[in-house]
Amino acid sequence: MKQPARAGHLVSGSLVVLALVLIGIGLLPVPFVKMSPGPVYDVLGQGSGGAFIEVSGAPTYPTNGQLDMLTVTERGGPPGPLTLPEAYWGWIDPDQQVIPREKIYPPDRSDEESEQIGYAQFSQSESNATAAALRFLSLPVIETATVQGVLADGPAAGVLRPGDVVLRVDSAPVVDAAQVSQAVKAHSPGSKVVFEIERDGSRSTAEVILAADPEHPSQGRAGILVATRYSAEFPIEFRAADVGGPSAGLVLALGLVDKLTPESLTGGRTAAVTGTIDADGRVGAIGGVREKAVAARNAGAQTLLIPPDNCSQLADLDLTGLEVIPVVDLREAVAVLRNEAAGGGQLPRCG
Question: What is the pLDDT at residue 179?
């Protein structure tokens, strides 16, 4: 009479073990990244610790309506691992995507490096947006060659730092990244190069013994990443916390134009915007456009401006109530918003 009870205990124990195994498997990370619609930020509103775009020392004008910056929430990348159940829900949800991790993050790059690259891209998009807006408004643009990154095992490690502004290379003045690169490559490996830099408001010199460039062994290499940074003759501050990537460039430029001109770009409407921008105002394609379009729709935007190259990726999405308009540059984006605000004529739409 005791054997059935023993069998019952064995079966129950086996089920508990099986349940624990399945739970354990479900918690294991999978090599995918799930992309979901992320938070939306109004660049005409408040950011982290004040106005999202703060301009001082120059005339500014009141704004109305919204210019929404769109983001994507990731799981499986640097923010944290993706589990199998999370991936499953991403596969069946039409508003999300699940992508093999290696297609976004190279296997030889650490999560920390990926995060640093993302923040550097956003910082450069702020710089490019500043240049594009100022040039659109025919205002002066100041250019500087700024160190963006230093290889940990490179010749400049411990000598130069991210944020250093390079003023001269071996006494020759430089104002952009290309000039720094050319000056360094003009030296052979083993040469000593003197950088005149500005750091924290003070000027100093730094000596770097060049290594060989792996792709061009006869040329020297300092192991630094230098970018051309742009600024105005007056202070401009963008307050965006914990946002990475380059795709906010266009919306930041539009927000700055709106702040610096009497006419309202939105006319009180809500427009969502995504797209990279270069210093001359040209708009480039972005990643995660599907999730960003869904975020714009969910936030109640009436208009969405995107790069033309991203139009085809939205063909099968339900974006009812959202006008999706491709723009090639800042000038066209300003014209579209002003036209929409005035209730103007028909404009080209995606699809």
Answer: 95
Could you tell me where the DSSP H helices lie in the chain?
2-27, 84-92, 111-136, 177-185, 249-260, 289-298, 330-341
Q: Which pLDDT score is estimated for 93?
A: 79
Structure tokens at 3: 């054997």
CA–CA gap between residue 258 and residue 172 (Å, rounded): 39
Which two tokens mark 261?
A: 């001109």
Confidence category of residue 7, pLDDT binned at 50, 70, 90: low
143-161 burial, b if ≥16 CB within 10 A, otherwise e? bbbbbbbbeeebbbeebbb
* pTM for this prediction: 0.81
- The C-alpha atoms of residue 129 and residue 255 are separated, in whole angstroms, by 9
Chain centre distance of CA 284? 12
Contacts of 149 (CB under 8 A, 6+ apart): 116, 120, 162, 224, 225
Catalogue the E-assigned strands of 232-274.
236-238, 270-273
CA dist 258 and 44 (Å) reads: 8
Q: Which residues on neighbouring strands pair with residue 221, listed in sequence order?
A: 211
At 82, is the pLDDT very low, low, confident or very high (cuts 50, 70, 90)? confident
C-alpha distances in Å from residue 98, one per residue of 29, 32, 80, 144, 289: 13, 6, 14, 40, 14
pLDDT at 21: 45
